[in-house]
Design goal:
The structure holds 2 protein chains of 2 kinds. Chain A is of the alpha+beta class. Chain A is built from 9 helices and 20 strands. In chain A, α1 runs parallel beside α4 and α2 packs antiparallel against α4. Chain B is of the alpha/beta class. Chain B has a 5-stranded parallel beta sheet, sandwiched between helices. In chain B, α2 packs antiparallel against α3 and α12 crosses α15. The chains are: A alpha+beta, B alpha/beta. At the A-B interface, α1, α2, α4 and α9 of A face α5, α7, α12 and α13 of B.
C-alpha cells in the first residue's frame, strides 16, 4: 500500500482515461473520489456543483464504496476556505487544512484524518465549481508537496471534465424538451380498431427525423379517427423541424375536417404559401370508423395519398393487396390531383401504412439489395392473427435484420387492425 | 403479504401449463386475467414472472424448434406474454430504494421479452429501472448512459451472432464509467464469453442477476485505467469484409453441387441465401470471441431444427463444406467449421 503515488504519473494516467469517458457530472465526481482513494489517500470528499439548490457530493473511504450525499450551500462554511476554493478566482490552488478544521460529519463515517487534509478546487469554466478534500489515516506518511502538485493537476483535469458535463447537460435538457414535442405521442382510443406504430430514425442517437405518424382521437359526426403517416424530405434535425410544423397543422386541421383529400389539399396550400419552398412532404391520410350495428360491422377506412406508397391490406385469406389510392407530392404544386379509396376491414384484418425508408432499406446477404415491395408483402403475409403491436415489431425486426447495422432512411410504420371478433385486444 | 399468503404453496408448474394453454389458444384476456388473478390472490410477483410467464415462453420456444408452432404463432404468444408482464408492472407499485439501472438488448437483438422480465424483476426488488427495449444501437446506448447516472448496465444477448455488438456496448459503458452485467443464451452457459468481452459480471438467470447486483461485491471498484479489451482478430475482420461476396460465392457453389437448387423459386433462393449468411455470421461470432462452442452449439441446434422438419442435415453440412473451400487462408475458421460439422452429424 505504501507504493501509492511513487509515480505521480499513475494517478494522472488513470485520470486521463477515466475522466474523459464520461459526460455525466455525478459519475465524474464518483470517479474522482474513487481514483483519489485508490491511488493516494484513505478518504476523499468531492463537494460538487449545485443540483438545483443543494450541492451534489460524493465521499469514499479506502476499502469502501463511493456514496452520494447532498449539502446545503451554507454548510460549506464549516470548513474554512472550502467555499472560496470552490468558486474563488484562482480555484485550482490547493491548501493544507488542519484536521481539526474539518467537521467529522463531512468525512465518510468512521474516518479520522491523521495530520493535515488537502483541499483542492476543481474549477468549472461554465460557472459554479467543485472542490476535493482528501486525507490519510493514522499510521500513514503525510502527503508531501510533490503529491499536492500532482493533485492540483488532477483537479484541474477533473474541472475540465465537469465543465464539459455541465455544457452537455444544458444542451441535453434543451434537446430533450424539443425532442419530446417531436416523438410520436401515445395513441388515443380507437373504437373498433387496434392501432400500433413504430419509428426507426436514420439517426439513432437523436431519435427524431423526417418521418412521422399520428393518430387523433375520434372527431366529427359520425366520429372518425384520423390517422396520418408522412415523410418530410431530408433527415435529422432540419427535417424534424418541418415535421413538427406539419404535425401541428394536422392536429388542428383535423378538428374541423376529417375527409382525407381535403386535409391534404389544405395542407398543400399552407405549405405552398408559408413553406420555405425547398422541402416537400409525402403523406398518407386515413379516416376510420367502425360500421354496422353496435360497431360490429367491418372497419371502414378511407385513404388518400400524396406522393406516398399506398397502404397494404392483409386479408383473412392471407392475401396482401395495395389500397388503390394515388396523389401528387404535398407542397410542390397547386394542381393537386388525388384519388381516394375506401376499404372495409373484416375483424382481424390489417392495414399497414409505411414510409419508403422501409422498402428502400439497403441490405440483405450482399448488403446492397433494397428490401423491396415483394419482401414487404411476404413479411406482412406472415403476420395473420398477430396483434397490431406484434406486427409492427415483427416488421421492424425483419428490416433491422436486413440492414444489419448499416445506414437507412427514417422508417415509420402504422398498423391498423380491425378488432378481432369476440374479444377486446 | 399476509402470513397465510407467504406460507401458501403455489403450484407453479400447473399454473405455467395453464398459462401456456391460454397462449396456445391465443386467448389474451384470459392469459392476462390468470396473471392478474394470481396477483390479486397475493402470489409473489417475481415468481409469477419467472415461474409462470417465463417458463411458458421457454416452452413456446421449444414448440417452435420442434416445428409444432409457426413463427407467427410464436410471435403472437410472445406478444400476449408481453402484455401479461405489463399487467404485473401496472399492478404492483414499488418505491425505488436501491439505485438506478439501465436494461437493454444488444444492437440487432429482438428477443426482448427476457430482458423485459429482468427489468421488471429488478424493479420489484427496489431498483429504478430504465428499460431501453430491443435492439439498442451503440449511439442510443451511449447517449442514454451519459445523460443518466446509472449504477449499472444489464445487457441481454440471446443469439451469439450479437456478441460483437455486445462487445461494443460493453466497451461504451465501461468507458463511460458504468459497470456492466450481461446475460442471455448468446453468452453461453458460463461466464467465459462475458469475461472475454470485458463485462464486469455474468448471470445465468434473472434472479441470479438481481442477487448479484444487490450483493456485497458489486459494483466493482475501478483501481486503475481500464483499457478496452481487444476483439475481432484477422480472420474475423476478413470474413466481415468479404461477407457479401462470400455468400454469393457460396450460393453459386451450392447450385453447382446440388442440382435441385438450380430450379429454386425466388423465395427459396432468398431463404437459401439467408441460411448461408446465417452460418457465416455464427462463424464470425465464434472467431470474434475465440470460442468454437459458439459455432458447435449453433450447428447442433440447426441439426435439431432440420430433423424436426424432416429435412436432411446435409442441407446444412453442405454449406459448412463450401465455406471451408472458400476460406483456404483461414485455418481458425476451418477448424471451427470442422468442429461444427462434427457437432451437426453426431
Amino acid at each position: 500500500m505504501d507504493e501509492r503515488l511513487c509515480c505521480p504519473d499513475r494517478l494522472l494516467a488513470a485520470a486521463g482515461i477515466a475522466l474523459t469517458g464520461s459526460l455525466n457530472r455525478r459519475r465524474i465526481l464518483r470517479t474522482v473520489v474513487e481514483l483519489v482513494v485508490t491511488q493516494v489517500a484513505d478518504a476523499a470528499v468531492a463537494v460538487g456543483p449545485t443540483d438545483g439548490r443543494r450541492l451534489d457530493c460524493v465521499r469514499m473511504l479506502a476499502g469502501g464504496r463511493a456514496a452520494r450525499f447532498q449539502l446545503d450551500p451554507h454548510e460549506l462554511d464549516a470548513v474554512a476556505g472550502l467555499a472560496q476554493v470552490r468558486s474563488g478566482p484562482n480555484p485550482a490552488l490547493g491548501q493544507r487544512v488542519p484536521a481539526a478544521a474539518v467537521p467529522d460529519w463531512l468525512w465518510p463515517p468512521g474516518f479520522r484524518p491523521a495530520g493535515e487534509a488537502l483541499l483542492v478546487g476543481m474549477p468549472i469554466a461554465a460557472g459554479g465549481g467543485s472542490a476535493l478534500l482528501l486525507a490519510r489515516g493514522p499510521g500513514r506518511p503525510p502527503l508531501h508537496n510533490e503529491e499536492l502538485a500532482t493533485l492540483q493537476t488532477f483537479a484541474a483535469q477533473a474541472g475540465q471534465a465537469l465543465t464539459a458535463a455541465a455544457l452537455y447537460h444544458e444542451q441535453g435538457e434543451a434537446m430533450a424538451i424539443l425532442r419530446a414535442e417531436l416523438l410520436p405521442l401515445p395513441l388515443p382510443p380507437t373504437p373498433g380498431a387496434e392501432v400500433a406504430g413504430g419509428f426507426q430514425p436514420a439517426e439513432h442517437g437523436l431519435q427524431i427525423g423526417g418521418d412521422f405518424y399520428d393518430v387523433f382521437p375520434p372527431t366529427g359526426d359520425p366520429a372518425r379517427n384520423v390517422v396520418v403517416l408522412g415523410d418530410v424530405s431530408g433527415k435529422g434535425a432540419p427535417a424534424a423541424a418541418l415535421t413538427g410544423k406539419v404535425r401541428q397543422s394536422l392536429r388542428v386541421l383535423q378538428l374541423v375536417e376529417q375527409r382525407p383529400t381535403e386535409l391534404l389539399r389544405v395542407l398543400n396550400d399552407a405549405l405552398l404559401r408559408y413553406g420555405e419552398g425547398d422541402r416537400f412532404v409525402t403523406m398518407v391520410v386515413g379516416a376510420m370508423r367502425p360500421s354496422g350495428h353496435h360497431h360490429r360491422g367491418p372497419l371502414e377506412l378511407t385513404v388518400a395519398t400524396g406522393g406516398h406508397p399506398p397502404p397494404l391490406v392483409l386479408r383473412s385469406d392471407g392475401s396482401v393487396a395495395e389500397i388503390p389510392a394515388a396523389g401528387a407530392l404535398i407542397g410542390v404544386t397547386t394542381n393537386l390531383r388525388m384519388r381516394q379509396a375506401t376499404v372495409e376491414l373484416a375483424p382481424g384484418e390489417m392495414c399497414l401504412l409505411y414510409s419508403d425508408g422501409l422498402t428502400e432499406a439497403p441490405g440483405g446477404p450482399t448488403g446492397r439489395e433494397r428490401y423491396g415491395d415483394r419482401r414487404l408483402r411476404q413479411a406482412l403475409a406472415s403476420c395473420p392473427g398477430m396483434p397490431a403491436g406484434a406486427t409492427v415489431e415483427r416488421l421492424q425486426q425483419l428490416v433491422s435484420e436486413w440492414v444489419r447495422g448499416g445506414d437507412h432512411d427514417d422508417i415509420a410504420l402504422l398498423v391498423i387492425r380491425a378488432q378481432p371478433a369476440g374479444g377486446s385486444a | 403479504m399476509t402470513a397465510s399468503a407467504s406460507r401458501r404453496v403455489w403450484p407453479w408448474r400447473d399454473l405455467s401449463a395453464e398459462f401456456l394453454a391460454l397462449l396456445k389458444a391465443a386467448d389474451e384476456p384470459a392469459a392476462v386475467g390468470l396473471v392478474t388473478g394470481l396477483l390479486r390472490d397475493r402470489a409473489p410477483a417475481e415468481r409469477v414472472l419467472l415461474d409462470v410467464i417465463a417458463a411458458a415462453q421457454a416452452a413456446v420456444g421449444q414448440l417452435w424448434a420442434e416445428d409444432r408452432w409457426s413463427v407467427a404463432r410464436e410471435h403472437a404468444a410472445t406478444a400476449i406474454s408481453g402484455r401479461a408482464v405489463a399487467a404485473v408492472a401496472e399492478r404492483i407499485e414499488t418505491r425505488p430504494c436501491r439505485g438506478r439501472l439501465t436494461v437493454a438488448c444488444v444492437d440487432g437483438e429482438w428477443h426482448a421479452l427476457p430482458a423485459r422480465i429482468l427489468a421488471e424483476v429488478l424493479r420489484l426488488r427496489g431498483w429504478q429501472v430504465d428499460f431501453l427495449g430491443a435492439s439498442v444501437s451503440g449511439r442510443q446506448l451511449v447517449t442514454h448512459l451519459q445523460q443518466t447516472d446509472a449504477d449499472a448496465l444489464a445487457l441481454s444477448c440471446m443469439l451469439a451472432t450479437g456478441l460483437p455488438h455486445a462487445h461494443a456496448a460493453i466497451t461504451a459503458a465501461t468507458s463511460a464509467g458504468v459497470p456492466v452485467i450481461v446475460g442471455g443464451r448468446g453468452f453461453g452457459l458460463d461466464g467465459q464469453r462475458a469475461a472475454m468481452l470485458g463485462a464486469d459480471a455474468w448471470a445465468p438467470t434473472a434472479a441470479a442477476a438481481a442477487d448479484r447486483l444487490a450483493g456485497p461485491d458489486w459494483p466493482p471498484v475501478r483501481t486503475g485505467p481500464r483499457l478496452p479489451t481487444p476483439g475481432g482478430g484477422g480472420e474475423y475482420a476478413q470474413i466481415q469484409q468479404r461477407r457479401g461476396s462470400l455468400v454469393e460465392a457460396a450460393v453459386r457453389r451450392l447450385t453447382e453441387l446440388l442440382p435441385p437448387v438450380r430450379s429454386y423459386r425466388r423465395e427459396q433462393l432468398g431463404s437459401t441465401e439467408e441460411d448461408l449468411a446465417y452460418i457465416l455470421d455464427f462463424l464470425a461470432a465464434a472467431l470474434y470471441v475465440e470460442d468454437p462452442t459458439v459455432f458447435t452449439e449453433f450447428a447442433e441446434w440447426t441439426a435439431g431444427i432440420l430433423a424436426a422438419r424432416g429435412l436432411p442435415v446435409a442441407a446444412f453440412t453442405a454449406g459448412l463444406d463450401i465455406y471451408r473451400e472458400l476460406l483456404p487462408d483461414c485455418p481458425q475458421a476451418g477448424a471451427v467449421l470442422t468442429a461444427g460439422r462434427a457437432a451437426a452429424t453426431r
